[in-house]
Amino acid sequence: LASATKGYGGADLKALCTEAALRAIRRRYPQIYDSKQKLLLDPKSVHVAEADFVAAMK
Fold first, then answer.
1. 8, 18, 24, 40: which sits with the fewest CB atoms below 10 Å from its CB?
2. pTM of the model
3. Range of the domain at 17
């Protein structure tokens, strides 16, 4: 990850981490955008994987 993000600034890294986390949330809770109800999410059940970072960089 470090070699793939050479030249990234702080804001770039923050955006990358945010997008990777959102991908992990969507994977764990696919109904999150389809439901009109407020959902209770368990943060401990969301695991950000290397694949989330790779996808976020594309």
1. 40
2. 0.84
3. 3-56
- Torsions phi, psi of 39, nearest 5? -105, 140
Residues 16, 1, 51, 53: what is their CA dihedral angle, to the nearest 10 degrees? Answer: 0
- Per-residue tens of pLDDT for the chain, all 58 residues: 889 999 999 999 999 999 999 999 999 999 888 878 888 889 999 999 999 999 999 8
Rounded to whole angstroms, the Cα distance separating 20 from 37 reads 24
What is the C-alpha to C-alpha distance for residues 18 and 56, in angstroms, rounded to an integer? 9
Residue 28 to residue 3: CA distance in whole angstroms: 28
Q: How far apart are CA 13 and CA 32, in angstroms?
A: 25
